[in-house]
Amino acid sequence: MILDPYASQRAMRQMRRAAMQRGVIAALDIGSYKVVALVLKLDPGASETGHAGIGKMAGQAAFRVIGAGTTRSSGVRYGEISTMSETESAVRTALQAAQKMAQTRVDHVMVCLSGGHPRSYGLAGEVDIEDGVVVENDIARVMAACDMPDFGAGREVLHAQPINFALDRRSGLSDPRGQSGRNLACDMHMVTVDASLIQNICNVLKRCDVELAGIASSAYTAGMAALVEDEQELGAACVDLGAGSSSVSIFIKKHMIYADCVRMGGSHVTSDISKGLQIDFGMAERIKTVHGGVQATSMDDREMIEIAGDSGDWDKDRRRVSRAELIGIMRPRIEEILEEVRARLDAAGFSHLPSQQVVLTGGAALVPGFDGLAARIFGQQVRLGRPVRVRGLPQAASGQAFSSVVGLSLLATHPQDEWWDFDLPVDSYPARSFKRAVKWFRDNW
User: Fold this and answer.
1) Which of 59-62's residues contact partners 24+ apart within 8 Å by CB, and which partners?
2) Band (431; pLDDT cuts 50, 70, 90)
3) Residue 154 pLDDT > 60, yes or no?
4) Helix axis angle, 218-226 to 403-413, nearest 10°
């Protein structure tokens, strides 16, 4: 007997359908700096324009945010859980605050994650049409015909989305059902992550007495929230600069075609300030937020920052440093993060796409001058992005730092079809490695 390799994903989809019927679901972002929970009120009867799939999950639902809760993260490093009990406490606090504001209980939660060493793969499959007209079963068959990459043991598929169909060599079809033809081909994008990360998240939510109704990459959800529709259609890269890690995604034709992660973020900048100025981490975070920057001017030599401590050494506890000195500590680390991101984009072949737009989002991108430095390093058009297209979002949760969780809200109510939404024949698949997704995309489209 062959077991369904996507049984857990199918189970989560069933949970999501149950939440849709109940009319309420929570979106949860477990980050390295903060944990954010949003409670969404769903209206399955109404529909809005957005990201529609083509199969069972294509139904959309209007929604609005009725509750929000934020707390300082604990027990999370590089976007991955390091201490289960501390993470459980933070998640429980954020969920309780959001439920109290919404005045309702939430049983189903969707989660976005930024760690787990994500990897992208491009898949292709092809089948003959039996009756001359494409039906749903043909789409299931062509997706099953895609060769599975050999992504190794201890990895789990997080996303597997059809991003293009071709009927008798007519490419660029988003939904070929009902069209006549003899040969159907499909291009898919697959993202895998460490299976242990998903299992740890399941364990945390189980201890918090809620059901996991879905899980998504923060690279994907941040792009859903921060990119406007033209950018998603023509092609753009989204860089979600978090505290422990920075997620990178590339979109074109309204589909994510590449995802990756750089294991550096805003907390590394804070750590450099803490070590450079010999102050505690909390004060370093405050100084970075209030006085930070990346471009020093002559005025910054004269602008002094008061540093107060409680070590008992008067001279050390009452110091003043110039803003130029602070910028001199911050800039090298920020440049290193951006150089790593650029290396990921170059390896993906981003420069070959028709549009070269780069959108920065996430809390670490709030440093003044960050976008200007990024534009010089990337050599592309760069802008700062914040969540768009969401009703009822509290002002406190509408900034760049909340792009991931807002994008997850959009994904919860406007899902895109995944491999496991179709009734696929479960057979043994040939395994061979594939090129990175964007290079494949460029060669085949």
Assistant:
1) 60/413, 60/414, 61/20, 61/413, 61/414, 62/413
2) very low
3) yes
4) 90
Least Cα distance to 241 among 216, 269, 265 occurs for 265
* Residue 159 · residue 147 · CB < 8 Å: no
CA angle 430, 431, 437 (to 5 degrees): 120
What the block records as the tokens of 366 is: 């709030």
Cα separation, 320 vs 153, in Å, equals 53
**pLDDT digits 0-9 by tens, 26-35:** 999 999 999 9
The first and second tokens of residue 418, run together, are: 């995944």
β-partners of residue 331 are none
* Phi, psi of 348, rounded to the nearest 5 degrees: -80, -10
Which one, of 114, 87, 303, 330, lies nearest residue 223 by Cα? Answer: 114
Residue 57, token pair as written in the block: 């999950």
- At position 40, the amino acid (one-letter code) is L
**pLDDT tens, 235-275?**
999 999 999 999 999 999 889 999 999 999 999 999 999 99
Cα separation, 212 vs 406, in Å, equals 17
Residues 301 and 325 sit within 8 Å (Cβ to Cβ)? no
Cβ-based neighbours of 135, under 8 Å, separated by 6 or more: 177
Q: Which residue has the tokens 């920065």?
A: 360
Q: Which residues, listed in sequence order, are joined to residue 156 by a DSSP beta bridge?
A: 193
Compute how many other C-beta atoms are within 10 angstroms of the C-beta atom of residue 49: 9
Q: What is the pLDDT of residue 5?
A: 53
Does residue 144 surpass a pLDDT of 80? yes
Res 167: pLDDT: 94
What domains does the chain contain, in order, with CATH numbers? Answer: 119-193+422-434 (3.30.1490.110)
Q: What tens digit of pLDDT does each residue of 94-135 get?
A: 999 999 999 999 999 999 988 889 999 999 999 999 888 998
Candidates 28, 31, 29; CA nearest to 246 is 31
CA distance 246 to 242: 5
Residue ranges of alpha helices (H) inside 278-397 are 281-291, 298-302, 314-317, 323-348, 370-378
**Beta carbons of 47 and 63 less than 8 angstroms apart:** no
Interval 74-84: pLDDT, tens: 889 888 889 99
Contact 358, 334 (CB under 8 A): no
Cα–Cα distance measured from residue 148 to residue 144, given in angstroms and rounded to the nearest whole number: 9
* DSSP annotation of 229: H
Phi-psi label, residue 140: left if phi above 0, alpha if psi -120 to 50, beta otherwise: alpha
Region for residue 132 given its phi and psi (left: phi exceeds 0; alpha: psi -120 to 50; beta: otherwise): left
